[in-house]
């Protein structure tokens, strides 16, 4: 499946649009509601996502009435994140019951209070990472980080929330420290190959900034 096909299938695709001063859902054309003082327009992760949101302490975004994100039995959450691991932040994506977790201990996904950890998948500190979680059915999922993956056995949780938020946990605590861009949700579990296609983007290659230089490198 092509990048364009995956984009057409996405239920939500939030991107930072500096002129709009917000995270805008390119599927529905509606912005998230900002809280706190996030900074728009920071350098993004790829050539086609040139802008990102720098999360200020306590800042987050919310979007109500998103019952379509009550996804059963399968779904995929994806995002680009550039964390400051020294900030000990946790949440990257959240709708109260569903949380992508960022920590120095590795990638993880929290679902209705149960945390599924992939300790061998470690984030690059102060650099861009792509992070995803796919749920195949009520008992099986996979955590992805920068191409690595780990299958997890789940506990059959059921989703029943209409609030989707980005940048904090369900109690509005543990705010994300760092940048984020390209938050996307699908209503099925994408394969590893489909996620790789999404990461490579519309041109088939990621133009990612190399740390410590003003140059870019192409990753195929």
Give a written overview of the molecule.
- The chain is mainly beta.
- The chain has one domain (3-219): Jelly Rolls, CATH 2.60.120.200.
- It has helices at 3-9, 192-200, and strands at 12-17, 22-25, 33-35, 39-43, 51-55, 60-63, 75-83, 91-94, 98-101, 107-111, 114-118, 129-137, 140-145, 148-153, 164-166, 178-186, 206-209, 216-219.
- Strands 1, 2, 4, 5, 7, 12, 13, 14 and 16 form a nine-stranded antiparallel β-sheet that branches. Strands 8-9-10-11 form a four-stranded antiparallel β-sheet, with no helix packed on it. The chain has a three-stranded antiparallel β-sheet with strand order 3-6-15, with no helix packed on it.
- A hairpin with a 2-residue loop joins strand 10 (107-111) and strand 11.
- The longest helix has 9 residues, at 192-200.
- The protein starts with a helix and ends with a strand.
